[in-house]
């Protein structure tokens, strides 16, 4: 079982304070998220963001959001250590490519559904209903067909256009 | 037209050195990527990663990879300023959700293609060829159908499992 933080009465510093060689205060902002038994978790975050920045970022957040913020920073830091050039932006680019491939596959499959329906209607003995209505009460995929969305990210321009200021 | 860096003979500090209030040396590691006329670009990177960490990360990379590294850091920093809790991990999560939706839509559309083909074959006068062979020389989508891939990211566990050490 993991120990989170320090034992009462026997102050053992959290991983952050241990690395920074400082006293781990009772209200240490790092202690709840960086237990002493997982030193690498803080080491990467410190290497990429710096303890001072992480401290500031956590202090600016309500306590109930700090756990998620630490998780996302740990994820980013590990990605940057693994890939110093692209970090987790490499993951975004890869996911974007997967979306592009899936959208192409989906468009082709949907076009084929339409093609097969039209052909099927034309081959029916009473096909006077016209190509606009075949199976329109339809299958689950026909109900989803209208909901194709555009991805919200374009990595070709993301680094230039996704700036806040 | 954008100025990149400093004019020869008229040393104007880059955005990084200006913010850090230091002399911008001829071989400043920041100058090629943080021109004086875009101070916010460096401000966010400094706020999130810290100038010292960025300096170190750039120094550890070959010169021809530093531009990409700066772009990805700027992207991450802007995302973190915009969303202090999730940063660009929020983007990864959103893209992953889009992939899940697209995979569901694709599976449904492909199932419908198969269903329509079988029905079409059954309604043909000479349908002795069996359901295994209809249109198998096929359309573009049928060639792509076998290439469905699993996403490489699972954000439910990413923050716990994508650690390097």
TrEMBL record, chains A, B:
Domain LOB: 12-113
Signal peptide: none
TM helices/strands, residue ranges: none
Pfam family, one: LOB
InterPro entries per UniProt: LOB
Chain intervals with Low complexity compositional bias: 132-142
Region span, Disordered: 122-149
Family: Belongs to the LOB domain-containing protein family.
Name this protein carries in UniProt: LOB domain-containing protein
Organism: Quercus rubra (Northern red oak)
